[in-house]
Amino acid sequence: MTAPAAADVAVIGAGVIGAACAWRLAERGLKVLVVEQGRPAGGSTGKSAAGVRAQFTTLTNILLSRHSIEEYASMPESGYHPGGYLLLVPDTQWTAHQEAVKLQRQLGVPTEQLTPAQAQAHATFDPGGLGGCTYCGTDGYVDAHGLTMAYVARARQAGARFQLDTAVTGIRRAAGVWQLRTTAGAVEAPLLVNAGGAWAGEVGDLAGLTIPVRPARRMVFTTGPLSLPRPLPMIFDLGSGVWLRSEGERVILGRADPADVGWREGMDWTWLEPTLEAAMARFPWLAEATLDRRASWWGYYEVTPDHQAIVGRLPGADGWLNACGFSGHGVMQAAAVARVIAQEVMGEPPFIDVTPLNSDRFARVPAATADIQV
């Protein structure tokens, strides 16, 4: 019989979260083994629209994103592009949104408050029903695949090993270690990091643990080439849920379908009409655009009941840490989350308090407040 592969920490998943965690753990001198069912960034990460923003409403999310963006800005491989995020806020949400802006500024995020008329300098849109707009020029997007591969390279250089195209088929705790059964053989490690993305709930199931993460399909529609007066920042219309931004000469856009949950595959072209209807109400110029079906794509969000991530140790499961359930925020927050996970493993106080993202919150009443999802 072949002896199990031994490590100090087994990381399940090599998306941007798992790859970043592997690097931060390995640089601490820990023996790290990453098990990935496919290839790095082959799941939700590679299908992401790759937006990064610090315009959140809660302290923890603001800090996780701000510190992550700062790290991406220092990494040429990340493809960080500070094209800005423009949020279009309805009248009914404007008062609360202004409080969020105050918090963002207190935490070092240079968010601007704009009238709808002032925001037209960034994009042309119908201002009907808006109470105001906010813009942050350090928000933008990254190359999610390039970023992940940079973390993989750094992790390997620090000594981490990657078992790719390897599925985990069983997990149990025995003799003080997590024993993983995989398609490439057994793995043993006293510590396990669940960075399984949309599959994180199923990773928990393998160990008999409840991790409330499920997949939700998302569509990204791509236009043909457009002649626009200027590139569009990432724009999110909080009222309709429509988002869009420039991608070269084209525009990519989407809108979450709350009913599209579970392991559904392929493009849902029936969702195109309601998405375009909502989009054209705010951006009438889209009526002149063509659609490039071949350049459009779909992927999975990993969502939790409150659409917030699950980060940190799992009560009642010794040596199990979660870094999952980001609900569209994984690329935005991977860098900072990896530092937090490494600090928790080493027994150090995390540089950002992630208590609001601990899994035991689901036993509390009321549930944690949801944040902006795009």
From TrEMBL:
Keywords: Oxidoreductase. Gene3D superfamilies: D-Amino Acid Oxidase, subunit A, domain 2, FAD/NAD(P)-binding domain. Its EC number is 1.5.3.1. One of its GO terms (molecular function) is sarcosine oxidase activity. It comes from the Bacteria. Residues 8-343 form the FAD dependent oxidoreductase domain. This is Sarcosine oxidase subunit beta. It comes from Deinococcus enclensis.
